[in-house]
Amino acid sequence: SERTLVLIKPDGVERGLVGEVIGRIERKGLKLVEMDLRRVDRKLAEQHYAEHDGKPFFESLLEFITSGPVVAAVVEGPHAISAFRQLAGGTDPVGKAAPGSLRGDYGLEVQYNLVHGSDSVESAERELKLWFPELQA
Ligand code: GTP
Ligand code: MG
């Protein structure tokens, strides 16, 4: 079994898609271990997206992710990391995400792509520590 960090980004919360995202996670058979609604400060946003520092969209990404409340969740199950990435769909909701995926069904623009999921075991470990420091591995 594996754990991954899932975020419902400010656009997903604002648009009332929390129930939809959580419902799909549950119906897939994944388990919610922790979940809360929270505001993201600049420091956490910078740490979370550190790999994108220096890219042209970095500043705009930080502004977006700190613009309103997000849902942060720890999701567990067999292959949880890739299972959630599959539910989310490719980064670009129109160019890459397949219909049937969350981004494919509900997104239009690459920045406003509704959800985040850790992309590897190493990322999941790093991100879970960052967002849920009180949780033990
Ligand atoms: P996350 O789960 O959020 O990490 O998405 P991802 O792993 O599918 O994509 P990636 O880590 O490459 O990019 C992180 C986030 O930056 C994306 O989810 C988008 O919100 C945003 N992003 C990525 N590429 C672009 C871009 O070209 N332009 C803009 N404006 N935003 C981008
Ligand atoms: Mg990513």
Succession of helices and strands: EHHEHHEHHEH
What distance separates the N and C termini?
A: 12 Å
Helix count equals: 7
Name given to the CATH architecture = 2-Layer Sandwich
Uncertain runs:
none
**Within the largest sheet, what's the order of strands?**
2-3-1-4
Give me the secondary-structure category: alpha+beta
CATH topology call: Alpha-Beta Plaits
User: What is the domain total for the residues?
Assistant: 1
CATH class: Alpha Beta
Question: What share of residues are in beta strands?
Answer: 15-25%
Q: Taking all residues together, what is the mean pLDDT?
A: 97
Kindly state the number of beta strands: 4
Concise description?
The chain is 41% helix and 19% strand. With 137 residues, it is α+β, with helices and mostly antiparallel strands.
Question: Which labels suit this protein?
Answer:
binds guanosine-5'-triphosphate; alpha+beta; globular; binds magnesium ion
Molecular structure report:
It is found in: Cytoplasm. It catalyses: a 2'-deoxyribonucleoside 5'-diphosphate + ATP = a 2'-deoxyribonucleoside 5'-triphosphate + ADP; a ribonucleoside 5'-diphosphate + ATP = a ribonucleoside 5'-triphosphate + ADP. Homotetramer. GO terms for molecular function: ATP binding; metal ion binding; nucleoside diphosphate kinase activity. The mean pLDDT is 97. The chain contains seven helices and four strands. It has helices spanning 10-14, 18-28, 42-48, 58-65, 80-88, 102-106, 121-131, and strands at residues 2-8, 31-38, 70-77, 115-117. A four-stranded antiparallel beta sheet has the order 2-3-1-4. It has one domain (2-131): Nucleoside diphosphate kinase-like domain (Alpha-Beta Plaits, 2-Layer Sandwich), CATH 3.30.70. By secondary structure, it is α+β, with helices and mostly antiparallel strands. Bound molecules: guanosine-5'-triphosphate and magnesium ion. Guanosine-5'-triphosphate is lined by residues 52, 57, 60-61, 91, 110-111, 113, 116-117, 119.
